[in-house]
Amino acid sequence: PHEIKEMKKGEQHGKHIIYWPNGEMMLKSFYQDGKLEGSFEGWHADASSSFVRNYVNGIAVGDEVQYYSKEEAEDHYTSRIKQTLHYDHAGKLDGKQQTFYSSGQLQSEEKYQHGSLHGQMISFTDDGEMVHEANYQKGDLEGKFFHKDAAGRVIECSYVKNKKNGQYTIYHTLDEMYRKQIALSAFYEIGVLEKETVTYNE
């Protein structure tokens, strides 16, 4: 069988197992009175672990780890971790969350407080260059902000309660030495544009 599902009085109660067409296990979970309870595990078709998550009374709580398949992961990275998450008692993201490239290089990291972004958020290219940095307070952008897009354009500014505040600058990266030229300069006062100057067009 490709699926085993135990029922009680019309509700899922007991184990629930789903298999890949090749016979390998895909998903394994346990239900109590229609709600997920305990460990919920997944596997890739190559039988390598896909994810591990925990439920209490139908709510995801605690740590979750997701994995690349053996085929997706680069050979030298044996742990294959794709993403790490943490949930609070209400099932909301809480604490540090991380995502990784298949090489093992950190792709992004952000911090949550009971479902809202709270703290630093950073992102990197697959060779380790930081391309995004933002800071949050209970879901609102607060403080330093940096972003670099694929074309090399860089934005630097600051936020107060999710509104731009102070100097706002856009740069064009000129060469591999990361020399840059200002494309636009502006000044904001709590979200209100006070002054804008365009100094260079690529």
Strands, helices and their partners?
Blueprint: E1 3-8, E2 11-19, E3 25-32, E4 35-36, E5 38-43, E6 49-56, E7 59-60, E8 62-67, E9 81-87, E10 95-100, E11 106-113, E12 116-124, E13 130-137, E14 140-141, E15 143-148, E16 153-160, E17 163-164, E18 166-173, E19 180-189, E20 192-198
Antiparallel strand pairs: 1-2, 2-3, 3-4, 3-5, 5-6, 6-7, 6-8, 8-9, 9-10, 10-11, 11-12, 12-13, 13-14, 13-15, 15-16, 16-17, 16-18, 18-19, 19-20
Q: Which ranges are low-confidence, i.e. pLDDT below 50, for 5 or more consecutive residues? A: none
Task: Tell me the total number of β-strands.
Answer: 20
SSE string, helix = H, strand = E? EEEEEEEEEEEEEEEEEEEE
Query: In percent, how helical is the residue content?
Result: under 10%
Q: How would you characterize this protein structure?
A:
With 202 residues, the chain is mainly β. It has strands spanning 3-8, 11-19, 25-32, 35-36, 38-43, 49-56, 59-60, 62-67, 81-87, 95-100, 106-113, 116-124, 130-137, 140-141, 143-148, 153-160, 163-164, 166-173, 180-189, 192-198. β11 (106-113) and β12 form a beta hairpin.
